[in-house]
Amino acid sequence: MMNIRKKQPWSFKRKLLIVMIVVLLSLGTVIYSLADRYLIEHVEVVVADDTATAGVSTAATTVAAEVNATSDDWSYSSDDIQIQIDQVQTGSGSDQITYFVADVVLKEASSLRSAFADSSFGTNIIEDTSAIASSNNAVFAINGDYYGFREDGVIIRNGTVYRDDPVRDAMALFDDGTMKTYDEEEISSSDLLAQGATNTLSFGPILIQDGNIVSDFSSVKIDSNFGNRSIQNANPRTAIGMIAPNHYVFVVVDGRSEGYSRGMTLAELADVMSDLGATEAYNLDGGGSSTMYFMGRVVNNPLGKNQERGVSDILYIKEGVTS
């Protein structure tokens, strides 16, 4: 009689191996998805280099030699631009706050511009604020809204619409030198352009609107991206405010550095902007992104480490820009 061997069941080790392979494949898919979302560059639009704009002067260092501008006293004066930067310290010990205030008066609104990292619009494209500023011959710059960390919001830069997915409170700069805060879901990008909007930034929250401090910062949520931390507590900050048409104030707050600067809460930042005379004020990306650049160097001390973090974009001031 022929012996028929019964099919043996898979061993436990073989089953475990298959489970491990499935888990590793799934984990690899997740890791790639996260890397694709947060690490791998995705260029959507390559932007013309601003240095090629007609009427633009030479590098900022050359401009500095031609006008009354020094980095020692953080002041800059020309026929078109007036900049005065002051360092302010309040409190002491663990409650000390260090921040920098740039009072800027422009002759023409077109001197205030925006620029993308690597002159490209997309996600995960980053450069240090100082690098973007230098490549665009900026006299002064701050970090922007880090638009590349999210995939929504209304992004208009230098008069071009790059993204049109309204979700949050935003800020717009206009060609008459004014600045307005608004709800993206209440006004279209085409209406903004018709009103003369040149740049919009989508981060927030609004700090001051129509001369009044926004009263409640307790439930602010910019987005739900992986890696976000609460922005309600004391943090490094960057903000822009308008005192009058073509008269702006930029504030960068250092933080997370014990004994040097703890950072500011949103309410504290709003109070500072109000005390400076801002009638409109808006919070931009903060934390390690918070950077102020002037005349070829970083003015503040990011995270107390003198080390910048790459960002998607900046706002900057330069000479010789024509409308």
TrEMBL record:
Q: Which residues form the Phosphodiester glycosidase domain?
A: 136-317
Q: Which InterPro entries match?
A: NAGPA (IPR018711)
What domain of life is recorded for the organism? Answer: Bacteria
Pfam families listed in its UniProt record: NAGPA
> What is the protein name stated in its UniProt record?
Exopolysaccharide biosynthesis protein
Q: Provide the species name.
A: Paenibacillus borealis
